[in-house]
Design brief:
The protein is of the alpha+beta class and about 280 residues long. The protein has helices spanning about 1-20, 30-45, 95-110, 120-145, 145-155, 170-185, 205-215, 260-270, 270-280, and strands at about 25, 60-65, 70-75, 85-90, 155-165, 185-190, 195-200, 220-230, 250-255. The strands form 2 sheets. A 5-stranded mixed sheet has the order 8-5-7-6-9, sandwiched between helices. A 4-stranded antiparallel sheet has the order 1-2-3-4. Helix 1 (about 1-20) packs across helix 2 (about 30-45). The longest helix has 24 residues, at about 120-145. The radius of gyration is 21 Å and the shape is globular.
């Protein structure tokens, strides 16, 4: 059981680091939540776990960012050797949709857990992709005939901060820079632990960039923050509106070495609050 709880703590530490604000929530009474927080905090300090017999099985939920929905997770004591219990919840879907989504989750859990490996993040990514596709079936039919809405969506300026567990691969770092130039995006990146990528440009190009990055193999990757601003239909030369440009004449990503350098650039771009919030840093 010790090895199972060790693996659970490793996975939970990663999940807690990835999700910001209330996107990760424990499910339990006050005493249970305090004991879970304590065990994870101690584990993060020295990679050991104590008083296992006193710790109840972990229960938590992850925000899916769609229709106020959640992925709820219960980890049995023997997980990942034992299959986790996971289900979808939302106040904004009907019973049929709820049943369909949970059936999809049930099938995916069995598939991912077949080799007795930790699988919650992969399940989360699959569920979120499934929901995005499912709900887009409704929204696309609503907007398909409305060209003005499409034009407005493409004429938005977006900036995002992407967090990765680590960024070491030279090939990935090359892609980060090349794709930004190709898509007309400005920004910065920081390799190492964690990896940070911040870019800004037209909304559709930014989301194409996200899609390309997520198609690569990562231990963990998530968009920690996203901001959008409307652009006037006449604003063809929107480059002057890009905050991350900072005097740079052509689009591209500048690679920086430290978190403090990223922080300084974001402060200069008047985006310090975005950076601090995304990185869970309390401003003193």
């Amino acid at each position: 059981m010790d090895s199972s709880r060790q693996l659970q703590c490793e996975e939970l530490s990663l999940l807690i680091a990835m999700f910001v604000d209330n996107e990760f929530q424990w499910i339990g009474d006050e005493n249970q939540i305090e004991s879970w927080k304590s065990i994870i905090d101690n584990f993060n300090l020295d990679q050991t776990i104590r008083n296992l017999e006193e710790i109840p099985p972990f229960r938590f939920q992850l925000s899916l960012d769609i229709n106020n929905s959640w992925l709820n997770v219960f980890l049995p004591l023997r997980y990942p050797k034992a299959q986790p219990e996971c289900y979808f919840s939302s106040d904004n879907v009907n019973k049929q949709t709820w049943t369909e989504i949970n059936f999809e989750i049930e099938i995916k859990v069995k598939e991912l857990n077949a080799n007795d490996e930790c699988c919650i993040f992969e399940l989360y990514q699959h569920t979120k992709s499934y929901l995005t596709e499912k709900f887009s079936q409704y929204t696309l039919s609503d907007y398909d005939d409305n060209k003005n809405e499409k034009e407005k969506a493409s004429l938005q300026l977006s900036r995002i901060l992407i967090w990765t567990h680590h960024l070491l691969s030279l090939e990935k770092r090359k892609n980060i820079c090349q794709w930004a130039e190709e898509l007309g995006l400005w920004g910065f990146s920081k390799p190492g632990y964690p990896g940070i990528i911040i870019v800004e440009g037209l909304n559709d190009k930014v989301h194409e960039y996200i899609s390309r990055l997520k198609s690569l193999r990562w231990q963990a990757i998530t968009v920690r923050s996203e901001q959008t601003e409307p652009l006037d239909l006449k604003e063809q030369h929107y480059g002057e509106r890009v905050k991350l440009r900072l005097g740079r004449s052509n689009p591209g990503v500048t690679e920086l070495e430290t978190m403090s350098e990223i922080s300084a650039k974001m402060k200069k771009a008047d985006l310090e609050e975005m950076f601090m919030s995304a990185m869970k840093i309390n401003k003193k």
